[in-house]
Write a structure and sequence with these properties.
The chain has two domains: 115 residues, D-amino Acid Aminotransferase, Chain A, domain 1, CATH 3.30.470.10; 150 residues, D-amino Acid Aminotransferase, subunit A, domain 2 (D-amino Acid Aminotransferase, Chain A, domain 2, Alpha-Beta Barrel), CATH 3.20.10. The protein is 30% helix and 28% strand. The longest helix has 24 residues. The protein is α+β, with helices and mostly antiparallel strands. It starts with a strand and ends with a helix. The strands form two sheets. Strands 7, 8, 9, 10, 11, 12, 13, 14 and 15 form a nine-stranded mixed sheet that branches. Strands 2-1-6-5-3-4 form a six-stranded antiparallel sheet. Pathway: Cofactor biosynthesis; tetrahydrofolate biosynthesis; 4-aminobenzoate from chorismate: step 2/2. This is Aminodeoxychorismate lyase. Its cofactor is pyridoxal 5'-phosphate. Pfam families: Aminotran_4 (PF01063).
């Protein structure tokens, strides 16, 4: 089945979608994006994604649409592409100008692009991976879900070249996040993750897992921790919309505990798989 995408009011085959060479997303990465997971044809944690979308658009001063309009477009993308399990990708740029200029000449009409992708959901906890501990070289507004991802790409490329799957970033020794994920550690039965500030993107999966853990009696601390605490951790895993929960077995050449997923990582992965489709169904019914 050919992919059908949305671009500026039209649904059309992906290969037919075109944007202006003067689009500010193309020229300046002047835009934002969101990725919403779909379970069994239903949007997962949509209200949270829309809150983050609204925040990002407001931070850039880009015109927004109503939550109901976004939801309708996402649901159309699911239907037109027959998505059971997958992702909805949304990108909004400031729009196309008449020439290249750092400041737009006028208030522009935003460029809106939506696509849908099928995925195969994991049925078991993935094998632990190696991540590479690296300096966080990105800008200082990581809380905005910007399409300006060059720093993230360079860091991920370097991590892969070093034999890792993902970078684990820090600023002057304070752990922040990955190029496309959030990190958690476990120490003495406590689940710890960096706080939500300008240094990390407030991951939707991250936030939901924090709540899921607390609802199930797990002690959670959203607090800054350094590299010494990282290397002393009993468990380490990362989260994202695309990977859910991914155990980490090695930090560069340092093995985390015995290199296998720990008890809390397994417990949270089981809770995630048991609750994610249910939460999506409840949200759909409420909407």
């Amino acid at each position: 089945m050919a992919e059908t995408v949305y671009l500026n009011g039209d649904w059309l085959p992906a290969e037919a979608a075109k944007v202006s060479v003067f689009d500010r997303g193309f020229l300046f990465a002047d835009g934002i994006y969101e990725v919403v997971t779909v379970y069994a044809g239903q949007l997962f944690l949509l209200d949270r994604h829309l809150q983050r979308l609204n925040r990002s658009l407001s931070a850039l001063g880009i015109a927004n649409r109503s939550d109901s309009e976004w939801q309708q477009l996402f649901e159309q993308a699911i239907q037109k592409n027959a998505i059971a399990d997958g992702f909805i990708y949304l990108q909004v740029t400031r729009g196309a100008d008449t020439k290249r200029s750092h400041l737009p000449a006028t208030m522009l009409t935003p460029t809106v692009f939506i696509s849908a992708t099928h995925i195969q959901l994991p049925t078991e906890l993935p094998e632990p991976v190696r991540v590479c501990v690296m300096d966080d070289i990105r800008w200082l507004r990581c809380d905005i879900k910007s399409i300006s991802l060059l720093g993230n790409i360079l860091l991920k490329q370097q991590a892969v070249a070093m034999g890792g799957m993902e970078p684990l970033l820090h600023r002057a020794g304070r752990v922040t996040e990955g190029a496309s994920c959030n990190y958690f550690i476990v120490k003495n039965g406590r689940l710890i993750t960096p706080p939500k500030d300008e240094l990390i993107l407030p991951g939707i999966t991250r936030d939901w897992l924090v709540e899921l853990a607390r609802d199930n009696g797990i002690e959670v601390h959203e607090e800054a921790f350094d590299l010494d605490a990282l290397y002393a951790a009993d468990e380490c895993f990362l989260t994202s919309s695309s990977r859910e929960i991914q155990p980490v077995g090695w930090l560069d050449e340092h093995m985390v505990a015995d290199g296998r997923p720990g008890a809390m990582t397994r417990q949270l992965a089981d809770l995630f798989r048991a609750n994610a489709p249910i939460a999506a169904a409840k949200q759909q019914a409420a909407g």
